[in-house]
Specification:
The protein is an alpha/beta fold and 484 residues long. It has two domains: 3-253 and 458-483, 3-Layer(aba) Sandwich (Aldehyde Dehydrogenase, Chain A, domain 1), CATH 3.40.605; 257-442, 3-Layer(aba) Sandwich (Aldehyde Dehydrogenase, Chain A, domain 2), CATH 3.40.309.10. 40% of the residues lie in helices and 22% in strands. It contains 16 helices and 21 strands. The protein has helices at residues 38-53, 55-58, 61-77, 79-90, 94-118, 155-168, 183-194, 213-219, 232-243, 267-279, 299-312, 331-346, 383-386, 402-410, 425-434, 467-473; strands spanning 3-4, 6-8, 11-13, 17-22, 29-35, 122-127, 133-142, 145-149, 172-176, 202-204, 225-229, 249-252, 257-261, 289-295, 350-353, 373-376, 393-399, 417-421, 439-442, 461-462, 475-483. The strands form five sheets. A seven-stranded mixed sheet has the order 15-16-17-14-13-18-19, sandwiched between helices. The chain is globular. The termini are far apart. Bound molecules: nicotinamide-adenine-dinucleotide (NAD). The site of nicotinamide-adenine-dinucleotide has 31 residues, from helix 8 and helix 9.
Length: 484
């Protein structure tokens, strides 16, 4: 059986114990994973600190960014290997992993390597009333050792979204990938070696959250910052954990995102967009829409059209090119999603389609599939309308006015993303500006430019990453004032 090991100071090392890496498509064990001990997390942090004092800390920006491009080259050389590992770990369709996850990992290294070279110095000429002149300029310095903690839904994409800008700024990282999806973080270690990234710059510790590698990392006094993507309540636990060492945090957390569909939309485009927004990656994207608000005039036709879309989705083996719906990540997560399917009924929902588990008559019945599901008829206060489910499911409600649509969409403790579907561009701008979220799409969804700010408000996170926002988080400014 394959063993996925920790990667510390340029070496693969076994841990204090092992846990199983499960293929969600059929429940089989695909690898054993070494769980890092407290001491090994400490070793990883010390290795990262050491790397900052060594060659990595002395590299100029030209050479550093060149090596990050080499990491991108190394991922591209092993593209199929990364795709296979991601598909086996997550159960996501191979078409998605090869179109989105792995290409985005490559892009993360290239974009941030290029961007950091363009981040100039801030400078101010100062003149005081008594005639003293001074020149201020701010130099950007790495934060130091950054702890990177990531989830299972887009494992490589989200890990590299943080690792690439952190390294571009000259930091060293200790990453703790999700216990559900450890494989691509380990493959990335090989790409780092191939690219000539010095030992200790990129370290991987495997394990869980509380009482394991995740918590050891957040509590470590020599970790300078934590960047985290995951559930909101995990964010809250990490915030408590880092409080005593006052570490900066960047949090990308959960969502309960709304889509607002006006009657004047391009109907076909809206239905296609919504189908992606609700069901892509089996609904396991933080940006997915679980609440759809539709102008009453087109409510029935839209519900019917989205139902048809849900029913033609092909739940299949992840490696089949025709598959567009994979399993959920784990038995535990399927239990959670199915508990919401049940709760929706108890809360008085009308089931439009789905609501259960598909039957295949083969090994996929031991996997963690659920049916894509649509509900209507719930009050806005229902738990199924308020709580993040993180599955291929949405609730559709009707509205009569723009004001009502905005109020319903904003009636949530989360605030990650929204999408608006309308042919009236003025309305698109007007409504978009009223959304209490970090990112709003008009007539699109998940259209991302890595230079743009990304993050959420409320329970959806703290701070923004993307473009200069990432570089701002992963660096410290030291203002130098020179009297002239
Ligand atoms: P999770 O919070 O359960 O786990 C995320 C990571 O945190 C894992 O590596 C886990 O081991 C670690 N962890 C758990 N408890 C910890 C603790 N106490 N201390 C330190 N580390 C700990 O999230 P998940 O189930 O892996 O991912 C799904 C969630 O992530 C959803 O809520 C989703 O919306 C969110 N998400 C958000 C974004 C975004 O950009 N806003 C992107 C993707 C996923």
């Amino acid at each position: 059986m394959k063993l996925i090991q920790n990667y510390i100071d340029g070496r693969f090392v076994s841990g204090k114990s092992e846990f199983a890496d499960i293929n969600p498509a059929d429940g089989t064990v695909i690898a054993q994973v070494s769980e890092a001990s407290d001491g090994q997390v400490n070793d990883a942090v010390c290795a990262a600190r050491g790397a900052l004092l060594g060659e990595w800390g002395r590299l100029g920006i030209r050479e550093r960014t060149l090596r990050l491009h080499r990491v991108a080259d190394a991922i591209e050389r092993k593209f199929d290997c990364f795709v296979r590992a991601e598909v086996a770990d997550t159960g996501k369709p191979v078409s998605l992993a090869s179109r989105l996850d792995v290409p985005r990992a490559v892009a993360n290294f290239r974009v941030f390597a290029d961007l950091v070279k363009m981040s100039g110095l801030e400078s101010f000429q100062t003149e005081t009333p008594d005639g003293t002149n001074a020149l201020n300029y701010a130099v950007r310095k790495p934060l130091g050792v950054v702890g990177v903690i990531t989830p299972w839904n887009l494992p490589l994409l989200l890990l590299t979204w943080k690792v690439a800008p952190a390294l571009a700024c000259g930091n060293a990282v200790v990453v703790k990938p999700s216990e559900e999806t450890p494989a691509t973080a380990a493959l990335l270690a090989e790409a780092m070696q191939d690219a000539g990234i010095p030992n200790g710059v990129y370290n991987v510790v495997h394990g869980f959250g509380p009482g394991s590698a995740g918590e050891f990392l957040t509590q470590h006094p020599d970790v300078d910052a934590i960047t985290f993507t995951g559930e909101s309540r995990t964010g809250a636990a990490i915030m408590k954990s880092v409080a005593c060492t006052v570490k900066p945090v960047s949090f990308e957390l959960g969502g309960k995102n709304a889509a607002i569909v006006f009657a004047d939309c391009n109907f076909e485009e809206a239905v296609n967009g919504l189908s992606d927004a609700v069901f892509l990656n089996t609904g396991q994207v933080c940006l997915c829409a679980e609440r759809v608000y539709v102008e009453r005039k087109i409510f029935s036709s839209l519900v019917e059209a989205l139902k048809r879309k849900a029913e033609i989705l092909h739940p299949g083996w992840p490696n089949d090119e025709k598959t567009d719906l994979g399993p959920l990540i784990s038995a535990q997560h399927r239990e959670k999603v199915l508990s919401y399917y049940k709760l929706a009924g108890e809360e008085g929902a009308t089931l439009v389609t789905g609501g259960g588990v598909p039957e295949f008559g083969d090994n996929r019945d031991q996997g963690f599939y659920v049916q894509p599901t649509i509900y209507t008829g719930l009050p806005e206060s229902a738990r199924c309308v308020q709580e993040e489910i993180f599955g291929p499911v949405c609730h559709i409600a009707a509205f009569d006015s723009e004001e009502e649509a905005v109020a319903m969409a904003n009636d949530t403790k989360y605030g990650l993303a929204a999408s608006i579907w309308t042919s009236d561009l003025k309305r698109g701008h007007r409504v978009a500006q009223q959304m209490k979220v970090g990112i709003t799409w008009v007539n699109s969804w998940f259209l991302r430019d890595l230079r743009t700010p990304f993050g959420g408000v409320g329970l959806s996170g703290i701070g923004r990453e993307g473009g200069m926002h990432s570089l701002n988080f992963y660096s410290e400014l030291n203002n130098i004032c020179i009297r002239l």
